[in-house]
Amino acid sequence: LAKRAGGKPVRIASKSVRSAELLRRILASSPVFQGLMTYSPRETAYLAAQGFDDLLIAYPAVNQADIAALAPAVASGKTIRLMVDSIEHVERIDRIARTLGVVFRLCLDLDMSSRFPGLHFGVRRSPVRTVDEAVRIARRTLGLEGVRLDALMGYEAQIAGLPDDVAGAAARNALIRWLKGRSIREIARRRGAVVVDHRRPRRA
Fold first, then answer.
1. SS3 145
2. What whole-number distance in Å separates Cα of residue 100 and Cα of residue 108?
3. What mean pLDDT comes out for the span 110-117?
4. Residue 157 confidence (pLDDT)
5. Over the range 21-59, which residues count as b (16 or more CB within 10 Å of their CB) and which as e?
6. How far apart are CA 201 and CA 204, in angstroms?
7. For 44-98, how does the pLDDT look when each residue is reduced to its tens digit (9 = 90+)?
8. Which residues in 28-185 belong to E strands, given as ranges?
9. Where are the beta strands (DSSP E) in the chain?
10. Which of 53, 118, 129, 137 is most buried, with most CB under 10 Å away?
């Protein structure tokens, strides 16, 4: 995995590696492995207490007690990011953070599905599907005291998880590879546009 990454950092998913000791061994094996993608706020608080840092919670969380469980680790200097996919979610985390006297880092979950005529190619992981929707959420975080948006995530399930070399299905394989090629180009443009557009000054 470290070789195939070609120098790009790889975040380890704790949902797949259910042992703190194994996580430590993987992270220590190569500088390519950096940080963890965790399953839930409670698990994240536990891992932070075990000495891990740079923790990204993979799924949105709204339970106040669960989010509050992260506050001690954040206050101690741990880098923890909560996943968000709506303005209401951002505002809720901001209210909780201000009550606790901390600032929560946020990661915006951008849907990476592609839509072709008559076909939704991918999974509906996030309701944030367009550049405008993503930029609207990003700009809402500006001026809020309890949150700071500093990351963007997009999971291309239709590319990473859809087989295109199935024995005895040559026509299907060719179609899937063609769709993947189109999807890769389309979502690369969309993801880049989100990064560029959220930095542009807002209109008066």
1. coil
2. 22
3. 89
4. 85
5. eebeebbeeeebbebbbbbbbebbbbbbeeebeebbbbe
6. 9
7. 999 999 999 999 999 999 999 999 999 999 999 999 999 999 999 999 999 999 9
8. 33-38, 55-57, 80-84, 104-109, 114-116, 119-121, 147-153
9. 10-13, 33-38, 55-57, 80-84, 104-109, 114-116, 119-121, 147-153
10. 137
Give 141's Cβ-side CA count (13 Å radius).
25
pLDDT digits (tens, 9 = 90+) for 104-113: 999 999 998 9
Phi, psi of 199 (to 5 degrees): -90, -10
Instruction: Give the pLDDT band (50/70/90) at residue 198.
Output: low
**For residue 176, what are its two tokens?**
């899937």
Q: Is 203 left (phi over 0), alpha (psi -120 to 50) or beta?
A: beta
Q: How far is CA 106 from the centre of its chain?
A: 9
What the block records as the tokens of 33 is: 């492995």
| Cα of 68 vs its chain's centroid, Å | 20
Give the integer Cα–Cα distance in Å for 202 and 65: 35
Q: Scan for tokens 């239709």, then name that residue.
A: 158
- Which residue is listed with tokens 């949105």? 60
Beta strands, E only, 15-118: 33-38, 55-57, 80-84, 104-109, 114-116
Q: What is the rounded distance in angstroms from the CA atom of residue 81 to the CA atom of residue 44?
A: 10
